[in-house]
Amino acid sequence: MSGGVVENLIIELTRLPGIGRKTAQRLAFFIMGMPGEEALSMANAIIKIKEKARFCKHCFNITEDEVCSLCTDPRRNREKICVVEEPSNLIVIENTKIYNGLYHVLLGALSPIDGITPERLRINELVERVKEGNISEVIIATNPNTKGETTAQYISQVLKPAGVKVSRIAYGLPIGGDIEFADEVTLSKALEGRNEMK
Amino acid sequence: MLTRTEGIVLKTQKYGEADLIATYLTSDKGIINAFAKSPRKTKSRFGSSLEPLTHAKISLWGKEQALPRITQSDIADSFRQIRENYRDFVNISKLVEILISLTPVGIPNKRLFSFFLNILHIVKSSEHELKDALHLITRIRLLAVIGYAPRLKGCGKCGEKSLDFYPDSGTTLCTKCAVTPDRAGKPFMRINNKVIHFYTHSIEWPINISNRLKPGRETLSGLSGLLDKHLTYLLSKKLRSSEFFSGTAAQFR
Ligand SMILES: [Zn+2]
Ligand SMILES: [Zn+2]
Q1: For residue B173, which phi and psi values (nearest 5 degrees)?
Q2: Nearest residue on chain A to B241, alpha-carbon basis
Q3: What residue of A is the nearest CA neighbor of B90?
Q4: Which among B75, B241, B244 is the nearest to A184, CB-wise?
């Protein structure tokens, strides 16, 4: 079971995030057992995504056209921009169906120790959008962790001169959880971000 | 084998779908890496205890050499005030990067642990008027603790007076010692007595009274630049976090 095409596929699969050699082996053998046309259609899907998919020139969501369908949709509220780290975060927020504004995907989060500087993210493009458009609110929905928080702070600073309202999604306790098991940071954040009951 | 220790999270790295590898500076094992199962899921029992700079009491399962698993992690101090202050966090990140780059993994160093924990407490609660000065002092002190502080007091070879710092030697050198044939044309930086004065006091004074040091802007930037050159030479590369001290990112530090 050495060398050749199988080994080649295993090596290619280990390039994927979270796939170690063992998992790659398992996947490779699974693909070997697939009907020919299914395996081919999977390979084609990979080719197609590289040929056709790209980032929207306004919001950096993934799209097949120059501008994505969210940016061109006339029913969306064009005064609000929700800032997320990755396209996958945008999908999750869309699924809630309570947000109707536009998006801006940063394609990452700031991290000094990894050398991820503002220049490496789509932050300048966000600032330009806010300056140009009639934006009333920027909602920062980066991850509730150190990188996401650092990014949120930086963005709120660079947007200050534009005079736009900048908000951050609330930190809270997970629904279905028990206060007893919440750690001090999560709990103090939840207290700070409390809402008045109506 | 289950072991308990306390540590400060230096950094974390995503691993697989929702797992993390955390790098700790521990009180009794030096720098170690440990694996945490699913902390990135919102309902994880680890909560925020694996965020960088958190000081936590941890339980580890497995051999240290073979990436032990974190089975429990209780926050002693979250240091969230530092993480929530952009300027402090960027500066402490630089300190962490220096620490990780110049400290071998798995070599116990109690002094380094207490030093770093003390720095986090000081930065968290400091109302230092010149916070940039405090951050520069912490960098100098760290280099001294791990044995990589540059020498700025006289020529490193003969002790003669000198104001020329040579990054390739990590010391000031007098004209006689600097121009031996094998050293011809090595770059140096001219420093002044204010820089030497501030540097010496940064190392010698207890850090909690360092706010009495009031260096001028030029002294700060001069010494900061010198340390950067010194580090670039030591590591044979630029620190990643130093990118945050130039360009647009520098506006808010
Ligand atoms: Zn778009
Ligand atoms: Zn000399």
Answers
A1: -135, 145
A2: A112
A3: A112
A4: B75
Q: What is the CATH number of the domain that holds B50?
A: 2.40.50.140
Q: pLDDT tens digits, residue range B198-243?
A: 999 999 998 878 878 889 999 999 999 999 999 999 999 889 888 8
Query: Within this chain, do residues B131 and B213 fall inside the same structural domain, yes or no?
Result: yes
Task: Look up residue A193 and give its amino acid.
Answer: G
Cβ–Cβ under 8 Å, residues A13 and A43: no
- The 10 Å CB-count burial string (b at 16+, else e) for B89-110 is bbbbbbbbbbbeeebeeeeebe
Query: Which of chain B's residues have a Cβ under 8 Å away from the Cβ of A171?
Result: none
CA distance A4 to A186: 51
Do residue B197 and residue B209 come from a single domain? yes
Residues B27 and B95 occupy one common structural domain: no
Domain end (from B36, B55, B78): B78
Domains and CATH numbers, chain A: 4-52 (1.10.8.420), 62-191 (3.40.1360.10)
Q: Is the pLDDT of residue B249 over 60?
A: no
